[in-house]
Amino acid sequence: GSLIQLNTDGLLLLGLTQSGQCPGMWRVAASLLSLCSGALILRLWRHGRDRAPAIKPPLPDSPEVQRLRELYDGMRQNFTDRNLDVAGIETQHSWWFGLVPGETTWPRRYIQFEPPLSPARLLVLTLDESPGIANAAASASAKVARILPPGTKMFANARNQYHCSLFFSSHPADPRPDVFDSVSGGVVPDLSVPPHDRPNSTQQQLQREVKAVREEVIQTPAFELEVHSVVMTRSGTLLLTWVNPSGIVSDLRQRLSQRLPGATSKQATIIHTSLLRIMSLDLLPEETVAEVQQVCQTLTEQLRGRKYAVSQLWYIFEETFSTIEGPRLEMQLRS
What we know:
The protein contains seven helices and 13 strands. It is of the alpha+beta class. Strand 8 and strand 9 form a beta hairpin. The chain is globular.
């Protein structure tokens, strides 16, 4: 004889009391085994379905992330509607060489100004830890450059110079020798003094500044950036724009502004990587604007939502405009 049954978990129990003495029973057992196996599969599927964890809906954007998204979308629409801001581009010409026809455009070193200007001092993150996104950004820059009319004056940042500026202690257009002086940033008698007449920081002032920045960085947790879009702006700058859902970037900027109250007022209010700058003083043809926007839209669709895990920042003593060329100090975020 035999015993065939399902236990409380729906598992098949098969026992032959007289093995080998009743071949017909084997056929019965096989049929029941097939039947019960189907029942078991159905039971297990229902069990797993009932116990599957619910998928959590995405968290809503913070007010800061929402602000950035709306701002980036507005920048894109502004370029579509109003083309380049030629007057604004012209105000940036003093930072560049090679703006006449036939010459290559490149940024000026601050010591090449007459009289010389002080280096920029700024905290940045680079894209060194995300070569995939850096490569895609370089591709975006090259594609847009090919669309622009022949003879357009432009400058494309090198891939190893891609960065996001997080905080400026001092800017060549607004040098601040003592960032702990909340009144004038160490400028005597006040900020009406022209940039080229302001004193350089002393070694002691710089050491104190670096120490304070490092202390703020090491207590800042590592964070993620998320790509939002590739945007051409009216200023002629092609941007890779980011959001920071955790809010850590905004918090770090706020803490540094409080810790260094005399720092320059020239601060970034978005999170962006500059890829290319148009320096020509001509409006783009409407068809070129449309082509540029199409390239930006295609690249945005490819990159939007890509994450970049940031584990270290750099404090830069920038010697050449907009390039982060110059001495640098590595600063690790809290892991």
